[in-house]
């Protein structure tokens, strides 16, 4: 293999690696907040930092598919008073105290959510304290068939 072929293959390898990692686009509502993706053998984690502890953001899938196992890490949070997760199919909202039994609402025929009605059911979203803050563990495949996840959060005891 000559030098040009080696450089070409190396360039293609690096480009493919970059594409594999660029499957998400992040937007946050508050200046100074951020979202970053990380993965290990078990799951993909979206780590959120929020200066005020109150905010929101969107994770959009730009290519590929959502991983089966997803969690959201709210870095520096001490007591998650409230969070909401919205996909194209459902909206769930809860808190640390509601961990494991979070009410959800389904989209209606017009594409809207009516939170004034009784929830469609309860989903096992586990919220737990960890060394880095609060972790929200989504059930497997919750994000399947959606192109984006919109979130909101409030940390109760932020100073």
| Domain unit count | 1
Q: Taking Cα atoms only, what radius of gyration do you get, to the nearest Å?
A: 18 Å
Structural class: mainly beta
Please provide the count of β strands. Answer: 12
User: What portion of residues belong to β-strands?
Assistant: 35-45%
Q: How many helices does DSSP assign?
A: 1
User: Major sheet: size, sense and barrel closure?
Assistant: 7 strands, antiparallel
Quick summary of this structure?
This protein is mainly beta and 159 residues long.
Describe the structure.
With 159 residues, the chain is mainly beta. The protein has one domain (24-155). The chain is 12% helix and 43% strand. The chain contains 1 helix and 12 strands. It has one helix at residues 3-21; strands spanning 24-28, 34-39, 44-49, 54-61, 70-75, 80-86, 90-94, 102-106, 121-123, 126-130, 133-137, 148-155. A 7-stranded antiparallel sheet has the order 1-4-12-6-7-8-9, with no helix packed on it. A 5-stranded mixed sheet has the order 2-3-5-11-10, with no helix packed on it. A hairpin with a 4-residue loop joins strand 2 (34-39) and strand 3 (44-49). The longest helix is centred in the first third of the chain and has 19 residues, at 3-21. It is globular, with a radius of gyration of 18 Å. The termini are far apart. The model is unreliable at 2-22 (pLDDT under 50).
């Amino acid at each position: 293999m000559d030098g040009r072929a080696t450089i070409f293959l190396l360039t293609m390898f690096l480009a493919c690696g970059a594409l594999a990692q660029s499957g998400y686009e992040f937007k946050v509502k508050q200046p100074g907040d951020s979202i970053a993706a990380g993965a290990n053998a078990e799951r993909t984690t979206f780590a959120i930092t929020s200066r005020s502890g109150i905010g929101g953001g969107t994770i959009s899938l730009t290519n590929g598919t959502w991983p089966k196992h997803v969690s959201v890490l709210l870095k520096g949070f001490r007591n998650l008073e409230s969070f909401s997760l919205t996909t194209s199919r459902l909206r769930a909202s809860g808190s640390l105290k509601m961990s494991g039994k979070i009410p959800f609402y389904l989209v209606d025929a017009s594409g809207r959510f009516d939170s004034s009605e009784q929830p469609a059911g309860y989903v096992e979203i586990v919220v737990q304290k960890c060394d880095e803050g609060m972790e929200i563990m989504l059930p497997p495949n919750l994000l399947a068939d959606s192109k984006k996840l919109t979130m909101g959060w409030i940390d109760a005891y932020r100073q």
